[in-house]
């Protein structure tokens, strides 16, 4: 009863001299939602936000969605936004949240009352390889140099990244652990968002930084940061070896996907999964993944449930092992 | 003209303020104790600053209480001393306006809750034309609602009335 | 390409009828949302993002820049007239602005805010065009240690708003620090002072607290002491600034502008800190004959300076975005994602790879700035008429707008309860003569200072000397010591010289 029909919205928006607002909805394919609330448990500009807005771009052009409203509630690897999403969108069939690996770790580490188990998994969409970078003028030349410094004394190597206990932090912990040292010795500096973290790396405030490769890509291209290694199975940057190639047996990906609030009906869930599947099948989506340099990691429904269960188990084990959970 | 002194203008009221600030400090200290220990960042952890703020508030509250026991500071505050007596009717109407908003906005929606609030607040400040206030209230809140929802796509609390639109 | 020829090309592109139309629409929308509490430029641009699917890049960015600058202009209006700041950068403007309005000087306050915004916008845009890349390189030299020292410097400014009693002023500050603690801790992820309420996990919104303290508290206090039939008469007074107002405003405009811009460029700077510092500076620098107006009838310097600082900082925020591709504020982050939806990857190479777009965008900032001052000055008379609304309807309207700003964006009843609860506390603070401004200052600076402190100590491995061994940090600390003790030493020296 609170939803407007798309046609009506369009007319009113048009009458208000903002004709562009409703125009995209005109291409009526098989519309899944007349209006969709996209919740981003991170500040605008980060990876989850980028994915959410990319979905908007493609889904609206294809007419899968009439209109989309965004809500950004950032902080603590999504642990700030998640409870709000759960509390405010419970049972609503027109709400989705972008989240991923970072949130799994963050909610476990924080022992927050609300976890990723409390939302309804819909689909995994992308996976991003992490990159270990240093400022361009750093004396650390390669991944071996960094590992040597970490082995000597992890405390002297300040590493910047996202929130405490997040995937960036976990990768650092695993690297230190692989040297036979305790991950607690790490000198990890949590920054609120990509902007301040990148600024700290560029300015040499921290010795190294860990985050998604795409966040650093432009800085690497411009020669302001040097990439030491990436965390995937395969090279993403021909210049940079993977951790595995460098003899460090770690493969870690920052996957991102869609979640629905708890308490939705089976029909609503099926509708969400159809939406994700149809989105993934669009040529425009493939094109977009390519331009942005995101790896397609589509997995929906039962498969995603299984993956998530295993991921939570694995992450819990890892966090315990490195003394964070 | 000498105004009757408000009952709140006694050292007792000042003491209550001092005690309230100490209570806030104690609450902060209590909450700080409840923060789980983290194995990370032993130098300045998650608890240090809350403890500090709690202690500061307790000390300041103690200081205020001490001043209150020596006669308080309100007697030097001309504005408070010369203030007209408490207007219980206005406060009650305004308080009702706030309560109505909190209680009804999720249930009846923004337009109805805010209109009732508008009429009650007008009445609190001595408006004697509730019907006109009601009309203005509906116009203002409906205008705000439509402006937000139609132009910007922001939902500011849809309810019964908004659903009909 | 050098800045002059870049600008020439930019103006050539921006001065087409269609692009001017986008700029005008943006300025209009921006002013409108700036006037409404709670709706900031970041949210508005996010809501306008679908434009990027329909319009070519230049037009869209001109629109966004108009919204961004317009919101900064509009934000001061409600601060001055209704004591209801629309965004965190306008909170300090409300201190003197609302007092001026209450004493029949709403017109000059609005005019000095508008012209100050123009001056600061121009200074800021000149800064973006000519020294942006330079300043940002300096800004990158500042790490958490320097930020912590900067916060300490800003804490000095609290002394300007403590009011009659240090004990009560510091209590207000302590209350603000306490409110700032609420939420999940960034460095460890532990929830603090949330008392098991999930809505508190993301902390308490500072604009909500400012509106509660200034607007809701004032309304409640008025009702408490309301005398039936006793209508408050609010004089509107003259609308334009007098020659004396001009003389008193020019210095604060320029100081605020030059203070604000570099703070905006800082990756973790923002618009709040320079407004506080500007307010402190103006209060200390004011001519003795006007000093009594601060905190009583409202001093025009206290509006001109912070408002200019706010706008110059807002312009500065665009520098790290354009030169390095760093999203250092919510608005910049949204604009970056708009770049990406055009397939433009913003980064250090943006200026060389997209010179046409970047310089057109910068040129449109100049244009938006001129448009806004032309749009806003004639509106002053109209805005000031808001004060003619009878007391009951005016205060009822303020409460309803405070509610829209709070509930509209978050849809959270918890936020409403907080708004009214803190409003009730503010009513008692008013009665017992506690200043409200330190609460806001504590709330803004407290969390920033704590995080910077802990980041710095993690980097230095727990070595506290990092704050004095890093030269820039030491310099800032010395300025803070000077600001704290300077006026006293100066006074003592003058007293001795007079003897």
UniProtKB/TrEMBL annotation, chain A:
Q: Which family does it belong to?
A: Belongs to the UPF0065 (bug) family.
CDD domains referenced in this protein's UniProt entry, alphabetically? PBP2_Bug_TTT
Question: Can you say what this protein is called?
Answer: Tripartite tricarboxylate transporter substrate binding protein
Lineage start: Bacteria, Pseudomonadati, Pseudomonadota, Alphaproteobacteria, Acetobacterales
InterPro entries on file: BUG, Bug_dom1
From which residue to which does any coiled coil extend? none
Could you name the domain of life of the organism this protein comes from? Bacteria
TrEMBL record, chain B:
Q: Which Pfam families match?
A: TctB
Matches recorded under InterPro entries: DUF1468
UniProt keyword list: Membrane, Transmembrane, Transmembrane helix
What residues form the membrane-spanning segments?
15-36, 48-69, 89-122, 134-161
Q: Domain of life here?
A: Bacteria
* Entry keyword Kinase: no
List residues of the DUF1468 domain: 16-155
Q: Which residues form a coiled coil?
A: none
- Tell me what this protein is called: Tripartite tricarboxylate transporter TctB family protein
Give the organism, scientific name.
Answer: Pararoseomonas baculiformis
Tell me the organism's taxonomic lineage.
Bacteria, Pseudomonadati, Pseudomonadota, Alphaproteobacteria, Acetobacterales
Automatic annotation (TrEMBL), chain C:
Sorted alphabetically, the keyword list is: Membrane, Transmembrane, Transmembrane helix
Q: Which residues form the DUF112 domain?
A: 20-441
Q: Which positions, given as ranges, span the membrane? A: 20-49, 61-82, 109-135, 147-167, 203-224, 312-336, 356-384, 396-429, 472-490
Name recorded for this polypeptide: Tripartite tricarboxylate transporter permease
Biological classification of the source: Bacteria, Pseudomonadati, Pseudomonadota, Alphaproteobacteria, Acetobacterales
